[in-house]
């Protein structure tokens, strides 16, 4: 056992100590040390020179040569120590090269204090999701756990198995089928090409950590995840910070996995400057053949911030939208004509001689943040970028993480001609307040025709009241998944008498409010009441639709739990222009009553029909569809036990426009038959899910 003695004189400053050690080593080459062993002296020197002190390369080589000289002379006296000394020297050299500066400094302090050096131990924490806080949609019901986002909390239920399992988290849509429906909204211009997200979920974990890895267990049709974000807010904290930040850990394009088998998705993530226990996954299922299913999310991280994570990730911020004259400088940039003068600054390349309309067209291709920044470059561009004609359509959804009340305030003066506004996903956790939104609507809502507000949890009854008062021309309103709006707030929608499209998916709208809306909004063309659990009697709603909304083209009654054959009969008798009808998971409808056959005979324009999970659909129903609904494009009969292959073949022959057919869990339709008819009808995408 070697004891390394360190004298008090050796604890001086780095430079003086280094010089003194060189002098000492030069002296020991000619004189025998009298105070302590040469081996101990040399080893202590090596420890200081190669493990502790960061010095210049030349000085380090000089000390290395000195050390070797001492070791050789010492080993001639003590041969048994040769191997041990050289091994120790090699370890120290490797340690000095691999160690970080912080570890070296910590080791030096330990030596100076006469304590044994100890390296900092970083322990990686692995944790599963504790609670699902928010999501945009899910396949399941609000009153059960099957196919719901809540299944994502906790340890895996299915993985590593593959297939269609009810214990997983499933989003509402997949593929491009829903986007091509007549009930879908027209895409907004100026949406950045890098924004791919269609759905999202937010998942909280027990302990905040600095993330080192995120693993998503995908059990069926993987590949939908396009973005992973981390939040600086601790959702379980009693004192939330005033400034909530979201940072992107990973982002990619939509893709489709080679096989639908289960996988563990763990992309390489960026380091961030704060600890987090709140993650957000954004997905795009447009390229997938069927519903993607997620089983669990694992967050790995360390409790202390990594020393090397000292950089700051650049972020896009659209809050810097000030239009003050001091910030609009033409020095060194483009110049405008002033006061009727015909002179031009030749330094601008004659850009201001282009026709006004041409510059407007060029500027119209810029996304909103770039448009706002360009407005500050010079007076000419300020004029074009602040022209209200540039803001006829405005999609703020891609910038949900940065949008605040200040952003809306800066945009007010530019949006006086605003007709279509998309604020979906924005303003949550206090970023946008009800007061800020109301102020913006009062200034810019007079010409609004379309308003997308899905998943906007800042909305209150006062917000809907302001919308009803200031947007008399509104024709489209989307409040999907605004599940924190109180039931009485929906009464104000009845004042929007020009409504054509209304989406109330996963809201708390009550029966009295929806009846009032249908009474005063007879021009409705598209209505989505999917998963509206507060409506007590859908038969009454169907009867009102039949009487008041005869121009209805699409109706979504997904998981409406109490629609009976009588209500469906009234609906199809009065709304004969229906082209899309979603009756998925309406378990109270029975085929034996003849309701589906009556539906087929009453709706000759039908293009989409979802009878998902209705176990009673039979051959007679498909034969009526084949005889009366030749325009049918999408049909979902998942889960029926009474449809044969013969009736299915007849349907395919009679409906040449059919593009989507879901026969998953149809007990009489096996995979061999699906493979056979897929070859006979190559233009039809036939779905048959499996469970491994």
From TrEMBL:
Keyword Nucleotide-binding (UniProt): no
GO biological process: SCF-dependent proteasomal ubiquitin-dependent protein catabolic process
Keywords of the record: Leucine-rich repeat, Ubl conjugation pathway
Domain F-box residue range list: 348-403
Pfam families registered for this protein in UniProt: F-box-like
Membrane as UniProt keyword: no
Gene Ontology CC terms: SCF ubiquitin ligase complex
PANTHER family: F-BOX_LRR-REPEAT PROTEIN 4, PARTNER OF PAIRED, ISOFORM B-RELATED
Protein name as annotated: F-box LRR-repeat 4-like protein
Organism: Labeo rohita (Indian major carp)
């Amino acid at each position: 056992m070697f004891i390394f003695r360190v004298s008090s004189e050796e604890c001086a400053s780095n430079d003086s100590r280094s010089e003194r050690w060189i002098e000492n080593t030069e002296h020991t080459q000619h004189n025998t040390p009298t105070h302590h062993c040469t081996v101990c002296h040399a080893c202590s020197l090596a420890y200081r020179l190669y493990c502790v002190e960061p010095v210049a390369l030349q000085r380090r080589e000089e000390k290395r040569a000195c050390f070797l000289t001492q070791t050789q002379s010492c080993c001639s006296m003590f041969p048994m120590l040769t191997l041990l000394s050289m091994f120790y020297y090699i370890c120290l050299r490797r340690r000095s090269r691999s160690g970080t500066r912080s570890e070296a400094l910590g080791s030096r302090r330990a030596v100076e204090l006469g304590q044994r050096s100890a390296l900092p131990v970083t322990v990686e924490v692995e944790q599963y999701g504790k609670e699902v806080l928010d999501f945009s949609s899910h396949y399941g019901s609000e009153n059960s756990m099957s196919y719901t986002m809540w299944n994502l909390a906790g340890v895996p239920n299915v993985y590593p198995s593959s297939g269609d399992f009810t214990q997983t988290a499933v989003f509402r849509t997949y593929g491009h089928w829903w986007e091509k429906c007549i009930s879908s909204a027209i895409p907004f211009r100026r949406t950045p090409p890098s924004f791919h997200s269609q759905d999202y979920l937010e998942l909280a974990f027990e302990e905040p950590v600095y993330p080192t890895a995120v693993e998503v267990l995908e059990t069926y049709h993987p590949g939908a995840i396009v973005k992973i974000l981390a939040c600086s807010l601790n959702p379980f904290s009693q004192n939330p910070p005033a400034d909530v930040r979201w940072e992107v850990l990973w982002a990619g394009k939509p893709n489709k996995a080679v096989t639908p088998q289960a996988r563990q998705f763990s992309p390489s993530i960026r380091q961030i400057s704060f600890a987090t226990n709140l993650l957000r996954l954004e997905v795009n299922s447009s390229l997938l053949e069927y519903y993607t299913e997620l089983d669990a999310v694992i967050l790995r991280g360390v409790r202390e911030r990594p020393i090397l994570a000292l950089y700051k990730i650049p972020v896009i911020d659209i809050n810097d939208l000030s239009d003050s004259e001091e910030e609009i400088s033409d020095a060194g940039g483009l110049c405008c004509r002033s006061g009727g003068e015909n002179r031009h600054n030749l330094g601008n390349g004659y850009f201001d001689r282009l026709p006004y309309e041409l510059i407007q067209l060029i500027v119209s291709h810029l996304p909103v943040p770039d448009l706002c920044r360009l407005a500050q470059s010079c007076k000419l561009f300020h004029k074009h970028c602040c022209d209200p004609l540039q803001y006829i359509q405005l999609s703020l959804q891609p910038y949900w993480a940065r949008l605040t009340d200040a952003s809306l305030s800066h945009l007010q003066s530019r949006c006086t001609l605003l007709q279509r506004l998309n604020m979906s996903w924005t303003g949550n956790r206090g970023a946008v307040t009800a007061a800020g939104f109301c102020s913006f609507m009062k200034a810019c809502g007079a010409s609004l025709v379309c308003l997308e507000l899905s998943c906007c949890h800042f909305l209150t009854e006062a917000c809907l009241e302001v919308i009803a008062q200031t947007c008399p021309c509104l024709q489209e309103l989307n409040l999907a998944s605004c599940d924190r709006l109180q039931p009485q707030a929906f009464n104000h929608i009845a004042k929007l008498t020009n409504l054509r499209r209304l989406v109330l998916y996963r809201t708390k709208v009550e029966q009295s409010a929806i009846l009032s809306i249908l009474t005063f909004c007879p021009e409705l063309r598209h209505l989505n009441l999917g998963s509206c659990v507060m409506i007590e009697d859908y038969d009454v709603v169907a009867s009102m639709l039949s009487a008041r909304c005869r121009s209805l083209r699409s109706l979504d009654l997904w998981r409406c739990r109490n629609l009976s054959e009588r209500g469906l009969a009234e609906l199809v008798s009065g709304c004969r222009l229906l082209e899309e009808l979603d009756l998925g998971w309406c378990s109270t409808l029975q085929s034996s009553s003849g309701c589906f056959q009556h539906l087929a005979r009453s709706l000759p324009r039908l293009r989409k029909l979802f009878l998902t999970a209705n176990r009673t659909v039979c051959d007679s129903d498909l034969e009526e569809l084949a005889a009366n609904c030749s325009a049918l494009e999408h049909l979902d009969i998942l889960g029926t036990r009474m449809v044969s292959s013969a009736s299915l073949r007849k349907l395919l022959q009679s409906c040449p426009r059919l593009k989507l057919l879901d026969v998953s869990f149809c007990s009489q339709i096996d995979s061999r038959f699906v493979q056979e008819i897929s070859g006979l009808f190559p233009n039809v995408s036939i779905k048959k899910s499996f469970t491994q």
